[in-house]
Amino acid sequence: MPDQILIFWKNEVKINFWGVRGSHPTPLSPEKLRQKISAVIQRVKPKDLQSPETRELFLSRLPEWLFGTIGGNTPCLEVRLSDGSCLILDAGSGIIGLSNSLSKEHQAPGSYHVFFSHFHYDHIQGLPFFMQAYNPQIQMHFYSPLEDMEYTLKDHMAHPYFPVTMQDRMTSHQYFHSLKNSPTIKIGNATISWQELNHPGKAFAYKIQEAGKTFIYATDVELGEVDFIKDGGNGPFFRDADFLVLDTMYTLGEAIDKYNWGHSSFSLGVEFAINWNVKKLALFHHEPKYDDKQIYSNLSAAKWYAQRQKSSLEIMLAEEGIGIEL
Q: What pLDDT sits at residue 93?
């Protein structure tokens, strides 16, 4: 991971992406790596190799999909509040990189607040490898609107699924908070609220507000007509958000073919963000079958679609290793 994601600014909210893929981890295969190297070699000219400066210039001009990678880990975001409080959104395989980064911090937090959108494998599979949870000096707070959260998490860390149990070997102080009867909670100076999403088995979006800024994490949602109704339930939650991370797993054609699978297309995601006057949208929960080139192609199409709507919406890709300040 780039070093810059280890730097945090006081009095600001910082969002770090540790896992951005959906469904299952997607490592960069040897074949895809060879294809990237081959594509770079085909572009290089003798003048590009004349000096360190020309080499760096050549690399800087390569397409983004070629020089780097979106990442292959499943969902996990880190949100650092202005007072240093650490919120973790989902515990997919991306939480392992977060754990490794935290172990290198000189003054890492003494408590963590983990919010689960839902409990499908790709959103909890990294939790057994979050090493801070095995430290008896650490406090682990877990949140979900679902009341069976504690049973679900402990059951998935038990024989025959995993050799280390949560209740016996995770020696941190563990607290399980049901949000069913709590539409909002406070952590530090931030207010966190939640809203149910259209996804098989239920999933939930989280809104984090602090110092006049609003960040929303809405993964695993299949958008429909009801989500765009101006006087419906989405207005108070999504309207005027500064930054929205949204499930945009498919193209429109795929979303139609996979109706009721619980995911959205990037074009619907753009329409949704424009509809609710969102300032910045991150395309998220990338289809595991897509390579980097396809995902960047979707980004280009999404930006074109927003421009066609004459919108000022800013659109980016959720990529492992990048950080956003609010």
A: 98
Instruction: Give the whole-angstrom CA distance, residue 231 versus residue 57.
Output: 51
- d(CA 190, CA 211) in angstroms, rounded, equals 8
Q: Cβ–Cβ contacts within 10 Å for residue 273, how many?
A: 25
* Unique residue bearing structure tokens 């202005």: 82
Q: What is the pLDDT of residues 200-243, one digit of tens each?
A: 999 999 999 999 999 999 999 999 999 999 988 899 999 999 99
One-letter amino acid for residue 170 of the chain: M
* Single-letter amino acid, residue 6: L
Q: 266 by DSSP, 3-state: which?
A: helix
Gap between the Cα atoms of 37 and 153, Å rounded:
41
Three-state secondary structure call for residue 9: coil
The token pair at 125 is 């599979």
| Burial (CB count <10 Å: 0-12, 13-18, 19+), residue 271 | buried
| Distance (Å, whole) CA 185 – CA 211 | 15
What is residue 10's predicted lDDT score, i.e. its pLDDT? 55
pLDDT value of position 167: 87
Using the structure block, give the residue that is written with the tokens 């979006």.
Answer: 205
d(CA 8, CA 131): 21
Place of tokens 């909002």: 184
- The DSSP bridge pattern shows strands 213-218 and 203-210 to be antiparallel
Low-confidence ranges of the chain (pLDDT < 70): 1-11
**pTM of the model as a whole:** 0.94
